[in-house]
Amino acid sequence: METDKLTTARAIMKGFTVLPTVPAAAAKAIRLLNEDDVDMGAVADVMLSDQVLAARVIRIVNSPLCKVMGQIQSVRQALVYLGPQRVFEIILTSCFLEVTDTNNRSPLRIQDCWEHAFGVGLVARRLAESIGYPQPEKAYVAGILHDVGEVILSQHRRQEYMRAMVLAKDEGIDLYDAEVRVFGTSHAEVGRLLGEQWNFPQEFVEVISLHHDSNLGVLPPLTLLVALADRFCIGVGLSSMGEQNTNKILGCADAVRLMQEHLPHVGSCDFDSLMISMEGLTDEVSCAVESIYS
Ligand SMILES: [Fe+2]
Ligand SMILES: [Fe+2]
Where does the HDOD domain start and stop, copy by copy (predicted)? Predict the structure, then answer.
């Protein structure tokens, strides 16, 4: 069954005339960041040499998502200050914005997709921090990218995707299940193939591919964090379909219950403090998206 979905996703992607690519400057910056002795000045120069990437980076650096600026004077200086991990995160975020923003024909409202992606990124990072996961930033990036297949599939198969949206809304089912019914595959498989094509690290490909797996108990830790964050965000109304199918599928309470059940398997966590830290999250996300989107 899983293999069938992947074969169908491959066939669907063969029909895409133009596939988005990671911008050359971003690809070069990622290569430089992977070198043993990273020269952050050189990375910043490469990023700022591409006008589109530079504009996106400036928006992200100035947004509430990066709260470190204070006394820093220039974007180049900020990138050097933020360091390789954070800059890697900014580049992948900008790639996601690029994919969603370029020639967008998706029937999904792109601002909703961004709010969902940033929401899942922020919640996944918070969950990661709460269990002492060694690289919480990785959880953030994985959260941003987890539904990249949804954006691509909806842009390239617009009519059928609209059918899936109507089905999800009318029957109160998850958009993922509606996709499977309409396409015989889903954004998880399409996203997985794209991630492989773009040479994303294997862990991210795993998150993109498995985040809808209903058997949460067997997921690798990073995928589990994103899968829980995904369910939580949909529960609080940060869904790629806006508020349309919220609560019909899986309410916030169910998502919290899943967190309580599964987080202890990947690390110990003070659940009450975690819940308190999530208050005000939807406002934080809307504010961040507003500042990048406008
Ligand atoms: Fe998804
Ligand atoms: Fe999602």
Answer: 19-214
